[in-house]
Protein backbone atom coordinates (compact mmCIF):
# COMPACT_ATOMS: atom_id res chain seq x y z
CA UNK A 1 0.00 0.00 0.00
CA UNK A 2 1.22 3.46 -0.87
CA UNK A 3 2.01 5.73 2.05
CA UNK A 4 2.27 8.88 -0.06
CA UNK A 5 -0.55 10.57 1.83
CA UNK A 6 1.51 10.22 5.01
CA UNK A 7 4.92 11.03 3.48
CA UNK A 8 6.72 13.98 5.13
CA UNK A 9 6.92 15.86 1.82
CA UNK A 10 3.18 15.47 1.24
CA UNK A 11 2.48 16.53 4.81
CA UNK A 12 4.64 19.60 4.24
CA UNK A 13 2.59 20.46 1.16
CA UNK A 14 -0.57 19.93 3.20
CA UNK A 15 0.71 22.28 5.89
CA UNK A 16 1.36 24.95 3.26
CA UNK A 17 -2.16 24.41 1.90
CA UNK A 18 -3.54 24.81 5.43
CA UNK A 19 -1.72 28.12 5.84
CA UNK A 20 -2.92 29.25 2.41
CA UNK A 21 -6.48 28.36 3.42
CA UNK A 22 -6.26 30.57 6.50
CA UNK A 23 -4.94 33.44 4.38
CA UNK A 24 -7.78 32.96 1.89
CA UNK A 25 -10.38 33.14 4.64
CA UNK A 26 -8.69 36.28 5.98
CA UNK A 27 -8.77 37.90 2.54
CA UNK A 28 -12.43 37.05 2.16
CA UNK A 29 -13.19 38.45 5.62
CA UNK A 30 -11.39 41.70 4.84
CA UNK A 31 -13.62 42.30 1.85
CA UNK A 32 -16.93 41.32 3.40
CA UNK A 33 -16.69 42.70 6.92
CA UNK A 34 -18.16 46.07 7.85
CA UNK A 35 -15.43 48.71 7.94
CA UNK A 36 -15.69 49.12 11.71
CA UNK A 37 -15.11 45.38 12.28
CA UNK A 38 -12.75 44.62 9.39
CA UNK A 39 -9.66 43.91 11.51
CA UNK A 40 -11.63 41.83 13.98
CA UNK A 41 -12.99 39.69 11.14
CA UNK A 42 -9.56 39.37 9.50
CA UNK A 43 -8.31 37.73 12.69
CA UNK A 44 -11.48 36.01 13.90
CA UNK A 45 -12.49 34.13 10.75
CA UNK A 46 -9.14 32.35 10.20
CA UNK A 47 -8.88 31.74 13.94
CA UNK A 48 -12.27 29.99 14.05
CA UNK A 49 -11.29 27.87 11.04
CA UNK A 50 -7.94 26.98 12.65
CA UNK A 51 -9.61 26.01 15.94
CA UNK A 52 -12.14 23.77 14.19
CA UNK A 53 -9.31 22.25 12.15
CA UNK A 54 -7.27 21.49 15.25
CA UNK A 55 -10.00 20.34 17.61
CA UNK A 56 -11.82 17.81 15.44
CA UNK A 57 -9.51 14.95 14.48
CA UNK A 58 -9.60 11.23 13.93
CA UNK A 59 -7.68 9.34 16.64
CA UNK A 60 -4.58 7.62 15.30
CA UNK A 61 -4.24 9.82 12.22
CA UNK A 62 -0.57 9.49 11.34
CA UNK A 63 -0.69 12.74 9.38
CA UNK A 64 -1.23 14.49 12.70
CA UNK A 65 0.08 13.74 16.17
CA UNK A 66 -2.46 10.94 16.44
CA UNK A 67 -4.11 12.69 19.36
CA UNK A 68 -7.29 14.70 19.35
CA UNK A 69 -9.37 16.99 21.50
CA UNK A 70 -12.69 15.76 20.09
CA UNK A 71 -12.58 12.30 18.52
CA UNK A 72 -14.13 12.59 15.09
CA UNK A 73 -15.02 9.76 12.70
CA UNK A 74 -12.83 9.70 9.61
CA UNK A 75 -15.65 10.54 7.22
CA UNK A 76 -16.59 13.63 9.23
CA UNK A 77 -12.94 14.70 9.39
CA UNK A 78 -12.58 14.25 5.64
CA UNK A 79 -15.69 16.38 5.08
CA UNK A 80 -14.26 19.05 7.40
CA UNK A 81 -10.98 19.04 5.49
CA UNK A 82 -12.73 19.28 2.13
CA UNK A 83 -14.92 22.11 3.45
CA UNK A 84 -11.90 24.04 4.73
CA UNK A 85 -9.70 23.47 1.69
CA UNK A 86 -12.27 23.96 -1.05
CA UNK A 87 -14.06 26.59 1.04
CA UNK A 88 -10.83 28.56 1.03
CA UNK A 89 -10.75 28.39 -2.77
CA UNK A 90 -14.37 29.59 -2.84
CA UNK A 91 -13.51 32.38 -0.39
CA UNK A 92 -10.60 33.43 -2.61
CA UNK A 93 -12.92 33.40 -5.62
CA UNK A 94 -15.49 35.50 -3.74
CA UNK A 95 -12.72 37.92 -2.76
CA UNK A 96 -12.11 38.57 -6.45
CA UNK A 97 -9.00 36.45 -7.07
CA UNK A 98 -10.63 34.13 -9.56
CA UNK A 99 -7.54 32.83 -11.33
CA UNK A 100 -5.78 32.10 -8.04
CA UNK A 101 -8.92 30.44 -6.70
CA UNK A 102 -9.23 28.11 -9.68
CA UNK A 103 -5.50 27.35 -9.47
CA UNK A 104 -5.82 26.57 -5.76
CA UNK A 105 -8.80 24.30 -6.42
CA UNK A 106 -6.75 22.45 -9.05
CA UNK A 107 -3.83 22.03 -6.65
CA UNK A 108 -6.26 20.71 -4.02
CA UNK A 109 -7.69 18.15 -6.43
CA UNK A 110 -4.17 16.94 -7.31
CA UNK A 111 -3.16 16.86 -3.63
CA UNK A 112 -6.17 14.75 -2.65
CA UNK A 113 -5.70 12.46 -5.63
CA UNK A 114 -2.06 11.85 -4.67
CA UNK A 115 -3.06 11.38 -1.02
CA UNK A 116 -5.64 8.71 -1.88
CA UNK A 117 -4.24 6.36 0.77
CA UNK A 118 -4.92 8.89 3.53
CA UNK A 119 -8.40 9.56 2.14
CA UNK A 120 -9.11 5.81 2.24
CA UNK A 121 -7.70 5.61 5.77
CA UNK A 122 -10.08 8.36 6.88
CA UNK A 123 -13.02 6.61 5.24
CA UNK A 124 -12.19 3.40 7.14
CA UNK A 125 -11.82 5.04 10.56
TrEMBL record:
Pfam (any one): DUF2568
Transmembrane region(s): 12-31, 37-57, 69-93, 99-116
Domain of life assignment: Bacteria
Cross-referenced InterPro entries: DUF2568
Record keyword Nucleotide-binding present: no
Key words, A-Z: Membrane, Transmembrane, Transmembrane helix
UniProt KW Transmembrane keyword: yes
Name of the molecule in the record: DUF2568 domain-containing protein
Organism annotation: Streptomyces stramineus
Amino acid sequence: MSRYGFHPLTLGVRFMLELAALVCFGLWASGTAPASLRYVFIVAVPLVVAVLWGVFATPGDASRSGGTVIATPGLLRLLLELAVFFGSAAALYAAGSRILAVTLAGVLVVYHFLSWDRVLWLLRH
